[in-house]
Amino acid sequence: MSDQSRAPLMEALEHMRNNRLVPFDVPGHKHGKGNPELTEFLGEQCLSVDVNSMKPLDNLCHPTSVIREAEQLAAEAFGAANAFFMVGGTTSSVQAMILSAVKGGDEIILPRNVHQSVINALVLCGAVPIYINPQTHKQLGISLGMSVQDVLHTVEEHPHAKAVLVNNPTYYGICSDLRQITKIAHEKNMLVLVDEAHGTHFYFGKDMPVSAMAAGADMAAVSMHKSGGSLTQSSILLCGPKMNPHYVRKIINLTQTTSGSYLLLSSLDISRRNLALQGVEIFEKVKNYADYAREEINAIGDYYAYSKELINGDSIFDFDTTKLSVNTLRLGLAGIEVYDLLRDEYGIQIEFGDLGNVLAYISVGDKHKNIERLISAFSEIHRVYKRSNKDLLDSEYINPIVVMSPQKAFYSDKISLPIEECAGRVCTEFVMCYPPGIPILAPGERITDEIIRYIRYSGEKGCLVTGPESMNASRLNVLKGE
Amino acid sequence: MDDLWYSEYHAPTVRFSIKVKSQLYHEKSDYQDISVFDSVEFGRFLTLDGIMMLTERDEFIYHEMITHPAMAVNPEIKNVLVIGAGDGGVARELIKYKHIQQIDVVEIDERVVTVCKEYLPKTACGFDDPRVQLHFQDGLKFVRRRENIYDLIIVDSTDPFGPGEVLFTKEFYGSCFNALTENGILVNQHESSFYKSDAKEMQAAHRYNMQVFPVSRLYQAHIPTYPSGHWLFGFASKGLDPINDFKADDWNALGIATRYYNTPLHLGAFALPNYIKELLANG
Which chain B residue is nearest to residue A299, measuring alpha carbons? Predict the structure, then answer.
């Protein structure tokens, strides 16, 4: 075990700063001196390490020294064979993972409630999605994990598929039976890719659901900037021993910037060190905060802050208790309405609200008094805004009808129609509510009346509907001449 | 004697200093730095996180003014909740009323009470009355779980930057509303309005207050050791008006001994200077 208390990238940057190197290279702000307003705003410390690749600082596209060392320390900390520092968000990790595993015409098995970045990657590479219907929790209106039986059937039906992608945990904290799914896929020589954007802490906390690497998965995309504490847009791609790291590096370099930000990279290095050294304590604290908040919120009545009691051994194989997900339907309010009230009336910004649920993100940065504020704001919303809940839509999972591959639909000839005339047509673009950014429609899927109703309802309740060229989603692009 | 001075920034470029005889006590509790000093002019004084909380010399003004105006508007008050106030000063004023039955004092930091009992007995004596119940917990949590219980809630908090921050939020005021009886009154310290940053807090506190309570007014007092010396209190209620429902004769009949508060002053305290009225109108 190498020394996890080291942070090679940070140390190299400090060394550079102490050497007072005279910059005659980019960036042109020259350690901030050329842009005093920006320096004033972001701080001199920060600007002084916003530098370009140079010999002592290594090169993200071809790491041989300090970036390599930092990546190796990260790989070890996560129990992976290789780790790659990513600067294009976890979107770039997810895309690199998919582009490394499948190519044009290959089949890939995945649940439909994936992040848009997954289907975007399919548009880029031309692989064909084989969707597994995620189970839906009737009362909560949320998508669950993949059932082992469903994976088994799908793998039997599509024995030539190249990979299985698992979304673990979901935004809400639901985990699938990753070990079993990995075993099934590996028996058929399929790779297992895990979108672990919400699961960084699985690698460091005590008594956490199993992580992708521990379950034997081949690749995992980890959002260090979510529960890991690094800067927004930094991420880590993990690989198991079966993956060829040189090929993965080549795939990453297809789309990654050649000017990787040292602010992002050093934040990954420092956060990895912090998690490796303090992770157990940090996530104990987070779990305790979330458990306490759940208990108090459930005591208010009508809210349902759910946890491990949901576990059913299959589509809810485990639950990530650091997530504070709260169902609001019995209150007579859509999740998105509670989300807006919390911000507009109580000055509290939470992670997201969908039609029936809200998610408050609890982290190491929280203080007890703010947890009390959050609970009291929930209590006040209950007292002041509760109403009878007749007009709330059941957010049922809508089974997509896939007519063609996302890539084929995306690049085909299309026309724009008012949304109310779109039923029966093939959609050529994405439609989603943001957050969480899970597509309601993906390119290549048949539009139905049910879907149109759902899109309009989401808009009415205050969700941000994104994806279509028509900014207010009043029109959709559909396949021409069908 | 050493030339020792306690200084506090009242604004980024304004400092207020008191010559100190000695520091009697200091500790870092789970919540804050607690210090007690002895001074020539102000006697002993308590600071939390370096900020002046009370001096023996002028605490009577603050404690009388945060307590008696509400008691003179509703002389029927029986159940009182006090949040903060670990020094015991508010309780000391409240126990002067024989008809009050119950006084719950909720202080988050037990150490403040212990230190005050030892070093500031002139205020901490308020805790000796059997009607006073001390609860060491988060004020927001305590009040969230209570409904229709208290006739008066007094919020004697620190500034809105430290542990007292939650006591200046809308969710807190809303929870107080819910914990109050039909004729309930909420009185809180409302910061000063003279220096810019304090004025902002004052405006925000008043705005939240108005969103929750049908009646929401401010009144003032002169407190030499607080920033600018001119201090504001909030009076919010479910209906009782601090002027129209003022029962001066009833209150005078109680024969409560005070050094600052009296019934003509009550009326004057609610007459605000124009610049504050403008701040409120624009807040």
Answer: B145
pTM: 0.87
- Total count of residues recorded for chain A: 482
Q: Is the ipTM of this complex over 0.85?
A: no
Residues A111 and A22 in one domain: yes
For the domain spanning B5-55, the CATH number is 2.30.140.10
Query: Is A401 inside a domain boundary?
Result: no
Q: Is residue A264 domain-shared with residue A293, that is, in the same domain?
A: no
Q: Answer yes or no: do A326 and A465 share one domain.
A: no
B-chain CB neighbours of A377 within 8 Å are 170-171
Nearest CB to A373 within list B163, B171, B178: B171
Beta bridge partners, B33, equal B28
Using CA atoms, how far residue A111 sits from A44, A273, B193, in Å, is 45, 33, 58
**Residue range of the domain that includes A444:** 406-479
d(CA B175, CA B180): 9
> In this structure, are A92 and A223 located in the same domain?
yes
Range with lowest mean pLDDT among A95-99, A240-244, B81-85, B163-167: B163-167
Chains A and B: how many Cβ contacts under 8 Å? 44
Confidence of residue A396 (pLDDT cuts 50, 70, 90): low
Instruction: Determine which of B138, B144, B146, B167 to mutate to test the interface with A (most A C-beta atoms within 10 Å).
Output: B144
pLDDT at position A141 is: 83
Domain boundary among A385, A414, A448: A385
**What's the rounded mean pLDDT across residues A171-182?**
96
Distance from CA of B144 to the nearest CA of A (A): 6
Interval A360-370: pLDDT, tens: 999 878 888 89
CATH topology of domain B59-282: Rossmann fold (3.40.50)
Answer yes or no: B156 catalytic: yes
User: What is the distance between the alpha carbons of residues A352 and B18, in angstroms, rounded to a whole number?
Assistant: 50
Integer Cα distance of A466 and A455 in angstroms: 10
Residue whose tokens read 């002019």: B41
For A383, the closest chain B residue by CA position comes to B178
Structural domains of chain A, count: 3
> What local confidence, expressed as pLDDT, does residue B26 receive?
96
